[in-house]
Amino acid sequence: MNLTLRIWRQRSPEDAGVMTTYEVSGISEDMSFLEMLDHLNEELILAGDEPVAFDHDCREGICGACGMVINGRAHGPERTTTCQLHMRHFSDGDTIDIEPWRAAAFPVVKDLVVDRSAFDRVIGAGGYVSVPTGSAPEAHAAPVPKPVADLAFEHAECIGCGACVAACPNGSAMLFTSAKVVHLNVLPQGAPERESRVLDMVGAMDDQGFGGCTNTGECATACPKGIPLQSIATMNREYLRATLKGAGRRR
Amino acid sequence: MSEYSHYAVGEPLVDTASPEGPIAERWDRRRFTAKLVNPANRRKLTVIVVGTGLAGGAAGATLAEQGYRVTQFCYQDSPRRAHSIAAQGGINAAKNYRNDGDSIHRLFYDTVKGGDFRARESNVHRLAQVSVEIIDQCVAQGVPFAREYGGLLDTRSFGGVQVSRTFYARGQTGQQLLLGAYQALSRQIAAGNVEMHARTEMLDLIVVDGRARGIVARDLITGRISTHFADAVVLASGGYGNVFHLSTNAKNSNATAIWRAHRRGAHFANPCFTQIHPTCVPRSGDHQSKLTLMSESLRNDGRIWVPKAKGDTRAPGDIPESERDYYLERIYPSFGNLVPRDIASRAAKNVCDEGRGVGPGGQGVYLDFADAIARMGRAAVETKYGNLFEMYERITAENPYEVPMRIYPAIHYTMGGLWVDYDLQTTVPGLFAIGEANFSDHGANRLGASALMQGLADGYFVLPSTINDYLARHPHDEVPPDHPAVVEATREVTDRLRRLLAGDGDRTPDSFHRELGDLLWDECGMARTDSGLRKALDRIPALREEFWRRIKVPGTGEELNQSLEKANRIVDYLELAELMCLDALHRTESCGGHFREESQTADGEAARDDEAFSYVAAWEFTGTGSPPVLHKEELRFEYVHPTQRSYA
Amino acid sequence: MALATRTAKPPSLIGSVWRSTVGKKAVMAVTGLIMLAYLVAHMLGNLKVFFGAGEFNHYAAWIRTIGEPFLHHEWFLWLARVALSAAVVLHGVAAYQLSRRDLAARPVKYRGRGRRRASYATRTMRWGGVILGLFIVWHILDLTTLTVNPNAQEGRTYENLVASFDRWYVSAFYIAAMLALGLHIRHGFWSAAQTLGVGSPRRDRLLKALANGLAALLTCGFIAVPVGVLTGVVS
Description:
The structure holds 3 protein chains of 3 kinds. Chain B is an alpha+beta fold.
């Protein structure tokens, strides 16, 4: 098939950037979206142009490196990562708009590449269990009911791609943050740091310049791993609980 | 023995760190004899860790917890994205929670045997011992392993072993374990104990007075070349499967860190030991950029077949039962579709070579669930394999409930890597290699669910214990930034990048990578022959020459330039590929993932030659294109006695 | 050995509530629910207008006597006014600050035409809130202080109300504001439940139904009065 691509080109963070139009032909419907871009890049290199920069790595939907807004939707029309989106979901003659994640906390580095290190700082603020290597008790010392383990797993599936932030009209990282808070806070292993974790992670999230949540639900719709919107409500509850508990302890 | 003259044989290599005594006591002995560093002195010592996968992430976090200053690097934008994240199946541990007769000794035995008797007994036993602690550590970190209704950990059996010792988190065990390590690392980064350099790639090793003292790295965003110094350097940069271009590795996984270390004096062991996974989604065309693994568990219920006739292009449903060849069931009646990875892979290649392959390019075989659906019902198949079927359909747009899946083998893991002693130290003092980057504990073939075990064992427990000994014995002075070794390494890196950018040829980096990959896949893939390997050894230097003549890299070195990154990695693949083929040529036996067509039993199985090849082949670099030196480390088997595998 | 990574001093209650986006949203949720409870009572009281001037004016006078003799005349009313004013101000200020933050967090819009999941109610929260804020000002000037009321007779609440709504454009504005109120409550109530963390997958449908029910009830209840006046049922 033949396609018209309108791609955001921006040389550097300081550069203004512009949508640039490219025509590509001979696209197979079995190609992944990234393979389609590989194809374009091969042509650009041979033509003496600069190829389009985009993040990608595992290309099997688990590392979370890839991500672009395709026709206004994070990761495009299917509920999956960009690398697992295939060209059969487009038609011959389509025009496709391709833009980077847009959020103040995710500045554009080049073309479709953005800086998502803010996520790492949110995790660093409390998204862990403090258990130095070697200090762990026997694994069966604390049984975890299966429903709790499953709930934790469902939230631990987050791949940190940033689609939630990109899709949110407020550039909010609530779904990302809540996924980690819920994963660790529901487990007995995470209980000792339950309050400090949520307070510190929400604090870090705000410090990184993400917006607040207005419960639009765009994040959960865009999430390729299906982290539920409910996760945010649970984190809110954890936050208020921790706040009140902290207030009680101070008195 | 090969008559090939393109290498010399050097002094045998001896693992001097390996302790003696009863095998079960060796790890304790080593830890006791290893010197310790006073906690107050640790913060004066810096360790560089390259890579943030299971091994690197675990090591960085643990060393920082012990009080060392850690400087860590990854090429990804976040340490959380290292390719360990893509491991699906599970992690082995000799917990014996099932009371099914498992023990540390049995895991040790299975691993040595599974590796076709080409691994070091002491190391493998230590791995089995440590496996138990890994599960404890990960559970405490909040890794959401699968559990039973009683709240205890669930296990399954995996990869043809008879005990149920594989712990898992649905099909995303690697992801969950990696996130555990990443979170522990993040905690240390936030505490200021780890200086993390994401999007920074190691491009050379700095060796001062015979010891590893630092690295040269490139900031992938700004292109800035920087030098970093330390008292020891740990490489946890993964395997080299991407030398084949198409593999299940991440697109940017590369061999540059280990290859540059090899060029600086670290011996490279068993490069020809690569693992091919039989159940991957076949390529759909020339545009294919990588291959996706489908869990091996599919072979438990799917039946593998191809048409009996060559070039049969009918739809699978139109081929009557009598015209189908269930070749694994035919050739291996007792194991059928469950033969080990290497055998299943080779059989698929053979039928495709006969012209009976299916799908685009005839590079695929059917994995049919029709019988399973008829037997168990569609609902039961869906419960067991639903997510895999969904993944398959997303990629191929074919519904495996109605049309048989198509699968084909793909490169998956590399058992070879930098040679290390019992302490995981390479032949360059102060340079350690952990995880898939070292030649490791898997011998000639890795068992399923053992990669995660080894990565975490090295990172959490082994390296943090053994590196103390080196650090305690070798207090270092500061390296002056203008030391000749530093200047020379930096110059070499910048020269190479400049040379790549200067070329104004007519071929893209990818086109070279693809050509090299195809060559290796054909000649150094599932089945290797003397003539094929010689052909590849002739072709690779020519390809290298052509690369420098015709390469075209757009842009500059002072910005994010993904074409430059790729081209720079291909330079190393073009050298590594040659060593792989040479190693494969010199090892005229078949063992594990290395199958030489000349060395097979009467019924077509791999025939090992323990007389001639019961050694680790560690290669010393002598210059690009010049004959390397082979150092042999003899393997002694005191506890597990070599036997020939048989699956017929 | 540098293992402690948490901040030693816990933040103050005010700090973690007002300074964080989650806490500020909780303030909005609580103040919103206070106003919602008031509106339900207000709407029910309004419906007394259909029983005639005598009963309605009597009701209006009774409101001023609530709490007597413990409270002085009109004290309850003033307490309620103060509490409601505080709620309005906190709600509005928090909304303003959060909105500014949200807009700054997403400075660039996408050019691609995406499909939105968010409902009309969700997308109009900010402008709807502004309309309601303006409406409250006008509403107080019209029927509390009587500044802009054509009748303007203290104590004759029924007559003032009829005089105001007899002007079609006043009724139109009132009805429009009540529709905005309905939309605001439809998303706001469910959103408040999310913010306060009482939502759960099991309760989600119930909460959404409740939000829709409250929105419909309040809108219809309030609109009934101007419609009554315009149709002559109330005169």
